Amino acid sequence: MPHKLIIIIGSISGAISVILGAFGAHALKDSLTASGRLDTYETAVKYQMYHSLALILLGILMIHFQHKYLSYASYSFIIGTIIFSGSLYLLCATGISKLGAITPIGGLFLIAAWVLLAIGIYKTA
Q1: Please, are residues 89 and 41 in contact by the beta-carbon 8 Å criterion?
Q2: How many CA atoms lie within 13 A of 37 on its CB side?
Q3: What is the pTM of this model?
Q4: Number of H-type helices and E-type strands within the chain
Q5: Distant-in-sequence contacts of 95-102, Cβ < 8 A, 24+ apart
Q6: Residue (of 79, 84, 122) closest to 103 by Cα position
Q7: Best CA proximity match to 100, nearest among 111, 84, 113, 115
Q8: For 58-123, where are the E strands, in sequence order?
Q9: What does the alpha-carbon distance between residue 31 and residue 92 come to, in Å, rounded to a whole number?
Q10: Does the chain have fewer CB atoms within 10 Å around its N or its C terminus?
């Protein structure tokens, strides 16, 4: 995946996490607190922001380092964020607790992304 596209996706994801964070803190706070899901929602927002920043930094790294593992890391960050944070957002919005069962799959993609990033940088040095 081209580095500029990775930076753009990371930037858009970061903006979405700020929007969803503000929406949760203001419009949804009472319902999230009542359902006991405020912490879950905040976790989704935090992880989305962390990995948005990771994507931006990965895109910048890819200006100087090229390796297929860095590209694999970008896909894994994107898929992991969508599955991890997305499943938590859906859990909070719908109350369907079974959605929590797919959250760890997103977590595995995020772990894989960090490992692929490390391998990719190692192999370029």
Answers
A1: yes
A2: 22
A3: 0.94
A4: 5, 0
A5: 95/35, 95/37
A6: 84
A7: 84
A8: none
A9: 9
A10: C
- Amino acid at site 43: T
Residue linked to tokens 């069962």:
101
**Structure tokens, 78:** 């994107």
Q: Are 25 and 42 in contact (CB under 8 A)?
A: no
Of the candidates 46, 90, 63, the one whose C-alpha atom is nearest the C-alpha of residue 6 is: 63
Residue among 77, 60, 75 at smallest CA distance from 114: 77
User: Each residue of 45-80: pLDDT tens digit?
Assistant: 999 999 999 999 999 999 999 999 999 999 999 999
CB 25 within 8 Å of CB 45 = no
Domain span holding position 57: 3-124
Domain count, the chain: 1
Per-residue pLDDT tens over the stretch 3-34? 999 999 999 999 999 999 999 999 999 999 99
